[in-house]
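Give me structure tokens for this 523-residue protein.
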Amino acid sequence: MSKIDHNFVPSDAEELRDCLADPMWRICSGQLYKIMIKDETLEDGLKVVPFRPNRAQKRFIRRLWFRNLILKARQLGFTTLISILWLDHALWNPNQRCGIIAHDREAAATIFRDKVKFAYENLPDWLRAEMPLKKNSAIELLFAHNNSSIRVATSMRSGTIDRLLISEYGKICVKYPEKAREVVTGSLPAVPLNGIAVIESTAEGQGGDFHDKSVKAEAIAETGRQLHNRDWRFHFYAWWENPEYQMDPTGIVITAKEHEYFDVIEAQCDTELSMRQRAWWIATRDSDMSGDSEKMWQEYPSTSKEAFQRSMEGSYYAVQLSNARRTGRISNVPHVSNVPVHTFWDIGKRDGTAIWLMQKVGLEHRFIGYIEDHEQPFEHYILELEKLGYLWGTHHLPHDATHQRQLKRRNISAQEMLQEMRPHWSFTIVPRVEDITVGIQLTRSKFSECWFDENACALGLQRLTNYRKERDARLGVFKPTPLHDENSEGADAFRQFAQGWSEPATPAGSRPSRKRRPSAMAA
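Here you go.
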């Protein structure tokens, strides 16, 4: 805790020395660090002000742990805060390596220029003279007085990282799954147990490592158990915690149903939402989000659960999945030995592949597994299937698996590659439907025959739940075509079942019987 009042201004060298020895005074006093904020009254739209943490930022500092996960509303200033924290740590502690991972190069350059480098270059002249730069590159500041550094990049995995921020990790997981995998396998393990890692992001839909880590961290928080160094501490910051998110309600129409929504949030969160706050939410939804409430839940969540909530409006299979749960067809569905397992594939254009695993038992189509990965060769999926040790039936591939791909020495289709890898497996091509909505309707009609193992198919069910129509942002209505996102491969693979499955001539799990010649005795 801070020993010195944050508003204290030192008047002599001794007082200054005491203040500089207090990290919280350095961060919170506004005497050392400056930032740029938006100011629409100025020509360039930016104003330089002393940095003073807001209420949400101070709460985060008080709760800072070794591993921290921040689920938040937009523009609460956490990247700015942590940039200042890391810069301060590097300036005042020797031989430290501080890093920030951004979701793309443009974001990395902006964070480094406008947050890290700007804060350093606007330190008091006397302090900057005592803490000069040894290296000043486009991504890193290395300090001459203590050999500590801070850098911003799109990936980091070499050496020890004493302080690490992963900014907009939800976006990384959705748009750059290979980069997310590198974060998990390379960047986070580089942070020692006594180091500090922070993941911060708005929600980017269900699925992906950020969603999974958030759900797990919140579940641990709800148990109240003591955390160990590797546990992620859950931090959530709602839009209504930002005092700037309010406006004059004059002319803003708020319906009774919308007031009911705000009343529920008040009850759930033990807070009060003023008319000015309610007006801001409605105006932001209608203007910035084209009337899309789901985008507001994602970008400006009121609760942590709402952040990952998906509206059922526009969802293709919401009714069918709801009926499946209600009738107990999403439950524990075990593998039945000696019954062939059939697979249904989608080989995505985004280098993603999804595979559903199904057994036909009686009149039931039992889905007992789901495999999905990105940027992996076909051999990877073959090995994943073989690990299961099942008796394989037919592997159903999408129509574009016949398209030729140019390799180094030859042209070959996905079907040919798979068949060469496993000559004894049976592959078939599912015919293309000219209108995808016909295939979707056919899939809906097949749901009543389907059972799903809730655990083994969890990700696949999530893909089906979130598969929806594309929204026309300009008109605020749904288009008649599906939205192509991280859910497409899983939903398209399931559609191959509806379009391509036909009952085998031989009952599942049995072999054709041979006619026996009449014996001499019978004759």
